[in-house]
User: Fold this.
Amino acid sequence: MKYCKKCIIPITRPEQVFNEEGVCDACSSAESKHTGIDWDARRSEFEKILERYRGDGSIYDCIIPVSGGKDSVSQALTMRDEFNMSPLCVNHLPCDLTEVGWKNLIFLRDLGFDVIHVGANRKAYREMTRIGFFKLGDCCWQEHIGIFTAPVRVAVQYRIPLLIWGENSQFEYGGPASKRENNYLDRNWLEQFQMLGYRISDVVLDGINLNDVKTFHYPTDEEMKDVGVTGLFLGYYTKWDSKKNANRAISLGWNRNPDGPVEGAYNDIENLDCKWIGGLHDYMKFIKFGFGRATDQLCIEIRAGRMSREEAIENLKNSSEGEVPWKFVPDFLEYLNISKEEFEANLDKFTNRRLFFCDDSGRLIKDSQGNLKRRYPLWEL
Ligand SMILES: [Zn+2]
Assistant:
């Protein structure tokens, strides 16, 4: 396995580009984030744009898509308290909300924000989860669409043209260079990075009526034009720092994961809202590409200069990355009405056999907890 020389991201990460020195593009953009960008200029550029939209507080003058996570809390506070905007927060409810996720959404309202919860037709949502899990190998595929479509639909229907997204993940985590400098989010961005090559209209092929998945439809170009919808990344105009966002939210009373680090993760402050986005979603990434959430989180620590590469490797070894996230599996089986055997067989189907050991008959080797055995020992990192 080949890894970035600066962080610990492996070359198996999709869309990751390594330069000639063996450094990944996320590390390269992190460097330019600290040195190559005039953040004051970006901020005044942002101020100028906001002037065109800012009202007197009697109406909502921007929409902020929120999950209730630390970043969305910080986004809402920044827009209201630093930029004097009057935001409406829009939350697309996950398949199955955790207790702590619900607490944090209430916390957001306690901070003085109005929140619209978009609760999609649960029958169709469940069938989309089935497609994601069995066909695309990502149990949260549909959730990642709804997060990006529902707020835009609300923008159109409430006629609030300005949407403020958080980070541009291509800039923060790496991706095609042309998209890294992007300051806006549109349909192309969504289709290129979130849909896994499966368009929303494709669900009909799997027996889902398109009329039942309205919240997952990106509005038409005409609708967008009529309202003048513009979606901007706050992370383009102000220096994005997840750690700072977390500290700010926690100091105000925001809740961490109650039982320590999320399964497969290094920290206890990300992906707390959905029962399977933290555990199962990341585990499915692990079996396909050989790395999970802890790796991503530790890379961010390295790039921010808060951790050395050696410390990150130690922390990765001590994390639960790569362990089957059993905690919410019973809920998942019940949600899809499937057996544990079907569940495990599907995980095996998506497991990259070049990354994990098999026995002589080609069956994946697992320990008593169902955990796979890596062919690429971490001490080689
Ligand atoms: Zn790197």
